[in-house]
Structure formats: C-alpha cells, structure tokens
Amino acid sequence: MMRPILAALLAALMCTPAMAGDKAHTAQRAVPGAGWAAIPIPGNSGKAIYERYCLECHGAGPEHPGTQALEAKYKGTLPAPLDRRTDLTADFVISTVRHGVSIMPAERKTEIGDAELRAIARYLAHEKD
Predict the structure, then answer these.
(1) Residues 6+ apart with CB under 8 A from 43
(2) Predicted confidence band at 42 (pLDDT cuts at 50, 70, 90)?
(3) CATH number for the domain that contains residue 116
(4) What is d(CA 67, CA 103) in angstroms, rounded to the nearest whole number?
(5) Is 21 inside any structural domain?
(6) Does residue 82 contact residue 97 with C-beta atoms inside 8 Å?
(7) Is residue 57's pLDDT more than 90?
(8) pLDDT score for 44
(9) How do beta strands 36-37 and 28-29 pair?
C-alpha cells in the first residue's frame, strides 16, 4: 500500500518546474537562507530583492563590510551605500555580482537567479520597470 503512494509522490515531484529544470520558470527565494521556492513571492521589486540579498553588506552604517570597503575606496567622492549611487549601470552591477570584485565574492545563479539580478541591477541603475 505504501509503495504506490511513494511512487505517486515521487512522480509528482519530478514533474514540477523546479525539479524538471523548466527554463521558462524562474525560482525565487522566499527569505534569505530559506532555499528556493517554486512560486514567486510578493514584493519582488528590484528594491525588495536588493534589500533581501544585498543590504547585509551594502546598507548604510559601519556594520556593513561592502559599504565600508567602498567608503575606503572612494573617500567620500561617491556615496558608499549602493542604493544612494547615481553612476551605476545595470550591466556593471550584473558583471560585478557574477564575477565579484575586491572583497565581494562572485554570486552564482543558484544564489541569485538571473531575473532577480536583473531586477537588482535595474533598481541600482535607477531604470524604470
């Protein structure tokens, strides 16, 4: 009796877009560290995604290592918190996130999906949706 139930459950799991590798579907994380969710969550604006993934290192204040590194690099000539910058392009943000720079490691697609990264990049470049 248990084998048919397990077989049906396994078959259902293998047919979901996340398990089948459906390229048309972009998985998005619900909360930091929670793993990937198959259903997009509310609040997936570029700003919300930036706050979910980037603010820990790039928020304002001394407790954010990315901001501190940029303060040391730019010595006040540019704002250190990324969301206060006006000189960033979407292409530069995407390249920096994917390849890393200085103390910032490269972020894989399994960590930040392409659609989420594009939303972050558009937000930081002040592009309209």
Answers:
(1) none
(2) low
(3) 1.10.760.10
(4) 11
(5) no
(6) no
(7) yes
(8) 76
(9) antiparallel
